[in-house]
Design brief:
With 335 residues, this protein is mainly alpha-helical. The protein contains 12 helices and 6 strands. The two termini are 13 Å apart.
């Protein structure tokens, strides 16, 4: 397998952080930065050895995420190209992704000082709560990583328990999902329940998360061809069938992460098919039969249409591609 490349990520970054948008491979600096993407950058760089590009990028990402926090632990999301914050503090997705990035760095980064400062930021942010299932799911992913390395971290354990409550139970009937409609980063919700159930030694919650992921994976592989057909930007509800567009790389990345987590927790190799299907989605084994990454730049394309590709290579899509390739690399080791 080809090595993980950060060339395009470097191109999208300056000393403040990673720019959100790109026109083809060129960063659109006029649109500024967001905490969501810098938290994602912190997640993927914390999975790498601390040298070369990951060394610089992880420190840039950590600085951005910490600067986004309020003294009470909420987060801002948007910064303009001149370094000015343009929005207020919230506990929306940016807060949840911040905790995901900080928890990942606190648990997995190989540099002690990075782990120290990331844990301090996590300890501040974990005092907050969100009403949003997505935000709580993202936060739970970071909290589960913290509990893995600090089993008696009471605030992280409390957040995991609260995330399970906010996400809610699976309703009876054929629609085995806690929301009335699939939305975005769907597999991350199932992964959060799996991770929380495992971290809290709750077999009931672990089984619930695995059931959610199994149901979602089967729906996204139901095309008959066996390839991944992820939920489109408009979501998907009961009775809606067939491919949905536009499809976003974060859906494939979330599936790769969730299936890897399920394998890691259960040891059941059947989950690895979700990782390989997500990696194949980027290679063109998808509803349009089109490659979703740029071999020359190392970037990921921004969206899959029914008969074409959005060739812009923004931060979210590029980091989703890298994240999926990291899981595919782990798949190769597991094989």
């Amino acid at each position: 397998m080809n090595p993980i490349r950060f060339d395009h990520v470097e191109h999208l970054c300056d000393h403040r952080g990673i720019f959100e948008h790109a026109e083809y491979t060129s960063p659109r600096e006029e649109h500024g930065y967001c905490t969501d993407d810098n938290a994602r950058l912190l997640v993927v760089t914390s999975r790498e050895d601390d040298d070369g590009s990951p060394y610089r990028l992880s420190r840039v990402a950590l600085g951005f995420v910490l600067d986004a926090q309020s003294s009470q632990g909420q987060s801002r999301n948007r910064m303009d190209r001149h370094g000015n914050w343009t929005d207020g503090f919230t506990t929306d997705d940016c807060w949840g992704r911040s905790l995901w990035g900080l928890g990942s760095a606190a648990a997995h980064h190989t540099d002690h000082s990075i782990r120290h400062w990331a844990l301090r930021g996590f300890d501040l942010g974990v005092t907050q709560r969100s009403r949003s299932p997505r935000a709580m799911a993202f936060a739970a992913l970071g909290a589960a990583d913290v509990v893995e390395h600090h089993p008696f971290h009471a605030p992280a354990r409390a957040l995991l328990a609260d995330a399970l409550t906010v996400i809610g139970p699976i309703p009876p009937g054929a629609w085995s999902w806690p929301e009335r409609r699939l939305r975005y980063a769907n597999a991350a919700v199932a992964e959060a329940v799996i991770a929380a159930g495992a971290a809290l030694d709750s077999a009931l919650d672990l089984d619930r998360g695995l059931a959610m992921l199994s149901w979602l994976l089967e729906r996204e592989l139901e095309t008959g061809s066996g390839h991944l057909s992820v939920v489109g930007v408009e979501g998907r509800g009961p009775g809606e069938t067939g491919p949905r567009f536009d499809q976003q790389p974060i859906e494939a990345a979330a599936m790769a992460d969730a299936c890897w987590r399920a394998y890691d927790v259960t040891g059941c190799r059947s989950w690895l098919r979700g990782v390989s299907a997500a990696a194949a989605w980027f290679a063109g084994v998808n509803d349009a039969g089109l490659v979703m990454h740029d071999a020359a730049s190392g970037g990921g394309f921004d969206g899959l249409h029914a008969d074409s590709v959005n060739l812009n290579q923004g931060a979210e899509s590029t980091l989703a591609f890298i994240s999926t390739m990291q899981r595919a690399r782990s798949l190769a080791v597991a094989a």
